[in-house]
Amino acid sequence: MNNITDKTLFARARQAAKRSYSPYSRFPVGAALLAGGAVFTGCNVENASYGLTLCAERAAILAAVAAGKRKPVKLAVAGGKGRAARPCGACLQVLAEFCGPDFPILLAPLDTPKAIERLTLADLLPKAFRLGTS
After folding, report:
1. Is 32 within 8 Å of 61 (Cβ atoms)?
2. Catalytic residue positions?
3. Contacts for 114-123 with beta carbons within 8 Å, 24 or more apart?
4. pLDDT exceeds 80 at position 6
5. Which CATH number is 6-124 given?
6. How many CA atoms does the CB half-sphere of 25 hold within 13 Å?
7. What are the CA-CA distances from residue 20 to residues 35, 54, 94 (Å)?
8. 1 — pLDDT class (breaks 50, 70, 90)
């Protein structure tokens, strides 16, 4: 169905991280989301009003949704040094809106892209809020 490899997905995430606007944290992050046979990328975009900052993961999924792709297949996140950055709770909750608990999330630091950590949404957000659940 799709021929996008994890290596390709991470290459796209690393490219996205290069476009990060992170003058405050100096912590660039890139994300690449496979959905509908296409790759949607995002980077973190900071703001002096910190609450208005947008994370790379949300930028990628919002780009996919805007393109009409609401069934993501997997996500690669490239960020951090020495160890991979993990998605924040807000990003995980947005992913939970469109993805099931077994949704694969692949993480790698920018400086050692071969150190891939493979997790699921349930690993990172075991009790996601879902409408109609307690």
Report:
1. no
2. 57
3. 115/83, 115/84, 116/6, 116/10, 117/84, 121/92, 121/95, 121/96
4. yes
5. 3.40.140.10
6. 17
7. 22, 10, 20
8. very low
